[in-house]
Amino acid sequence: MAFLEVKKVKIAGISACVPSGVEETFDYDLLPREMLEKYVESVGVLKKHRAKEDQCTSDLCCEAAEKLITDLQWDKSEIDLLVFASHTGDYKLPSTSCTLQHRLGLPTDIMAFDINHGCSGYLYGLSIIGNLMSTGSFKKGLLLVGNTQSKNVSYYDQSTYLIFGDAGTVTALEYQPDNYDLMKFHFLTDGSEFSSVYIPEGGYRHPITPDSFVMEEDEEGIKRNKTHLRMNGTDVFSFANSYMPKSIGALMNHYDINKDDIDFLVMHQANKFLCEKIRKKIKIPAEKTPYTFPDYGNTSGGSIPLTMTLKLNQPLAKEKLKLLMSTIGGGFSVASAYIETQGDIHCSDLVYL
Which of 37, 163, 209, 270 has the fewest beta carbons closer than 10 A? Predict the structure, then answer.
């Protein structure tokens, strides 16, 4: 079973950055008002932030990192680990983590690498950077997680265009052998359903050709080309509704976690319908489950840290908390986490770029 426990690492702070451009759901002109109202009632997304044409995920993460480093008054020369988790890096080669090391002015005596995960990227990244730092070999680390998924969607595909927002986040961690945040993880992976959320062409399995950009209309009237994201909502819901509660249950059973002790459930902000189904299935009260999808949409891997900075900034700073987290991402990949914080986690004000 894929369990992992991390000790001796503390979350020092979290920061997030979103593009300044905002798109309102009710401004979408390919659906009548009545259908948009039904969409908002079910999916819950009223608006989202969309990156400019020349803005990348790394730009958002870089701004968030600069803000957090300043707020924490960290000496950049002491940062010795950087992890970037995203599907939307700057280039196919090199790793975006390397360019971020240079842009942030971090020392060359640093370990930096990318994780190619989307919606599940935060918990995968947190477990990996936490495990590396728990040895004491690394003293201060940055986990940068985000996506500019809006660049991958077709305007003529309401199932993806209306839901995905853009964001970049950073979580600062430090080695603390005594006053640390206890982190426990569980993971699931099922690659048999990979095509339920994928981009058909542009990788090395199916390289881009001139035909990749030809718009095609499917039987549902959705127009896309082969470089656009394709998402089978029915498959995603079915998998998430089964595997997210399964992962949460496995985590809680393995580590003997009492559900009544949970202060907050922070889920990947997929959409209202799915999040509410999961919340009710595992029987966590609504008042313990913060949401940010109404104003930011599904921000992929950045949705959990974004929600923490916007909705839990005060309790994270002042209280010891027991947090339950869960996410599902393309692949399919699933991750759940239980984190006992020690308080004094700084959440920076949201940055707009």
Answer: 209
Length of the chain in terms of residues written: 353
Q: Is 334:198 a contact under the CB 8 Å cutoff?
A: no
- Specify the residue for token string 């002790």: 261
Instruction: Read off the pTM.
Output: 0.97
pLDDT digit string (tens) for 304-347? 999 999 999 999 999 999 999 999 999 999 999 999 999 999 99
Structure tokens at 306: 């974004």
| Tokens read off for 12 | 């020092």
The token pair at 296 is: 């930011």
> What's the count of helices (H) and strands (E) in the chain, helices before strands?
10, 18
Contact 268, 124 (CB under 8 A): no
Q: What pLDDT does residue 233 have? A: 83
Residue 220 has a pLDDT of 85
Q: Which domains does the chain have, with CATH numbers?
A: 1-353 (3.40.47.10)
- Please check whether residue 19 is in contact with residue 52, taking contact to mean a CB–CB distance below 8 angstroms: yes
For all residues of the chain together, what is the average pLDDT?
A: 97
Residue 151, amino acid: K
Residue 173 has φ and ψ, to the nearest 5°, of -125, 150
Query: Edge-to-edge, what's the strand order for the sheet holding 333-340?
Result: 3-6, 182-189, 333-340, 322-329, 264-267
